[in-house]
Amino acid sequence: MHHRRTAQDTLTAIEMDRRDQLDFVRADGVAVRITLLDTSAQLIRTNLDQIKVEKPGAVTELRFDCTFEIDGQRHTLTREVSTQNSFYEPFEIAGVRFWPDAVDGLFEFMDETHGPCRPRKHARLALQDASRRICPPPLHPWCPLAEEGLDIGECYNGDDTWMGGYFGASAHGGLDINHPRGTPIWAPLDLDDHFLFNTEAEHGNNRWRAFRRWPNGDLWTIQVHHVTRLTVPPHTTVSAGVQVADGAGVAVGAHDHSHFVFVVTHPGQPPIKLDPWILFWQMYQDRDAFADHFYLRAQRGRHTGLYPDD
Ligand SMILES: [Zn+2]
C-alpha cells in the first residue's frame, strides 16, 4: 500500500504493514520515502509462570524493532516497553522525527485485555517534521511532573507504561502515573469540550475525556481515569493550565494513580491511539514555560507536593 502524508503543524499518526510505502512531505516541501521493511518483538525478561497469564506483581519487559528504508537507507528503530526506556527520545532521520509506537508482534507476548491498544497493522508510528513541535502551543503539564522526568517506578506496579504488561500479561492501554489522591489534573492545552464519560456510580470508575479540534481538522482526544472529581463544569471550554479535576482516587487498585490516554484522529481516518508519553515528552521540552508547575521531589519516589515558590 502506498500512503502520502504532508507534515502538519500537529503530529501525524499512521499504521503501516510491512512493504507499505509512505511519502512524508516535510515542511520544506521535500518528500521523504519511508518503506516499512520488517517488524519484530522480543522478550527481554519476565517472571510470569506462563506467557499471557496475568500474575499480580509480575513484570514482563519487551523490546521491539521497526526496520525502515528511509530515502534509500536502512534504519532499525528499537524501542522498549515496560522499562525506564519506555520514556524515549524520538528518532530524527532525514529531517523527520519518528516515534515508533508499537508493533503487532508485541501480542505474541501479551493479550489485549486491558484497554484497546493493539495496532491494526504491523506497526504504528507518529511522525513530525523535525523542525516542528507536536502542536503549535506549548503544553502545560497535565499533572505535577518530576523534574528529572517520568520514572518507571511510578507507573502503577512499576511497569504500567503505554503497552506495558499489566500483571506481566496484558498490554496496558494507557500510561499510569502514581500520585496522591487529589493531585491536580490540568488542561495541557486549550480544550473544546470535556466531561466524565464513565462515572463511579454507574461504571465503578470516573473517566474524564476532553477534545481539541485543530484548525487543520485533526482531532485530539485525551483522557484521565481514576479522577476523584471535576473542578470545572463539564461541557465547557477550558484554557490550558486550568485545573480540570482532582486526580487519583477512584478504583486505583494497589497505588493511587492516574491513567492517561491520547488519541489522534485525522479527518476521514480511524482514530489512532498513541503513547501519552509523546505529550509528556513535549511537556518536558516546554518545561521552561511552566517551570512553576513541575514538582520538587525531595527524594526518589516521594512527592513533596510543594511548588518551587512555596
Ligand atoms: Zn492504567
What does this structure look like?
The protein has helices at 200-203, 277-285; strands spanning 2-6, 12-16, 21-25, 31-46, 60-70, 73-81, 91-93, 96-103, 111-114, 123-129, 145-146, 165-166, 170-172, 175-178, 184-186, 193-198, 207-213, 219-225, 229-230, 243-246, 257-265, 272-274, 294-295. 41% of the residues are buried. Helix content is 4%, strand content 41%. The chain folds into 2 domains: 2-129, Tick-borne Encephalitis virus Glycoprotein, domain 1; 145-295, Glucose Permease (Domain IIA) (Distorted Sandwich). The protein contains 2 helices and 23 strands. Mean pLDDT is 93; it is low at 297-310. The strands form 6 sheets. Strands 14, 16, 17, 18, 21 and 22 form a 6-stranded antiparallel β-sheet that branches. A 5-stranded mixed β-sheet has the order 1-3-4-5-6, with no helix packed on it. The protein has a 4-stranded antiparallel β-sheet with strand order 2-10-8-7, with no helix packed on it. With 310 residues, the protein is mainly β.
Biggest β-sheet strands, sense, barrel: 6 strands, antiparallel
Instruction: Indicate how many domains the architecture comprises.
Output: 2
- What is the H-and-E element order? EEEEEEEEEEEEEEEEHEEEEEEHE
Structural class comes to: mainly beta
Q: Any idea of the CATH topology of the largest domain? A: Glucose Permease (Domain IIA)
Parts with pLDDT < 50 across at least 5 consecutive residues: 297-310
CATH architecture of the largest domain: Distorted Sandwich
Question: Which CATH C-level class of the largest domain is it?
Answer: Mainly Beta
Q: Assign the CATH superfamily of the largest domain.
A: Glucose Permease (Domain IIA)
